């Protein structure tokens, strides 16, 4: 059976630390955090943090997920219907790029509030200046 291997990013011992990939990360002594610079999808993996105290070792594991950034969303009118002085609209918000994107809607007076990529509105024609905003994030 093949032995399992671990790749070390940083070792801290006796008040000193050694970076095994200099320039790729930043170690913060004040809170012992490790910042990975210029992350890419390849950085999404299981990481381990261990502290040795005499004959014992404490180990924490952290699964890092790296998402593709979300592109600016666009809003499309899917359906529009006018009747009896009111307007019904079906809107769709979408982003061309991004992983695990979630959408939310906002606007004045809570009329445009909602979650998800679709929004159905029924407005009086007097509300013609209404602006709905879609936010996309991951």
From TrEMBL:
It is found in: Membrane. GO terms for cellular component: membrane. Keywords: Glycoprotein, Membrane, Signal. InterPro entries: CD2/SLAM_rcpt, Ig-like_fold. Transmembrane segments: none annotated. This is SLAF1 protein.
């Amino acid at each position: 059976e093949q032995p399992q291997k671990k790749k070390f990013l940083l070792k801290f011992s006796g008040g000193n630390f050694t970076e095994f990939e200099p320039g790729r990360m930043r170690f913060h002594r004040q809170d012992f955090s490790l910042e990975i610079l210029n992350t890419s999808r390849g950085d999404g993996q299981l990481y381990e943090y261990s502290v040795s105290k005499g004959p014992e070792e404490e180990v924490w594991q952290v699964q890092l997920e790296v998402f593709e950034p979300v592109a600016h969303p666009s809003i499309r009118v899917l359906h529009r219907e006018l009747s009896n002085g009111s307007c019904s609209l079906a809107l769709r918000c979408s982003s061309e790029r991004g992983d695990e994107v979630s959408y939310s809607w906002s606007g004045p007076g809570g009329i445009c509030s909602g979650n998800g990529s679709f929004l159905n509105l029924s407005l009086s024609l007097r509300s013609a200046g209404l602006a709905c905003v879609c936010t996309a994030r991951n």
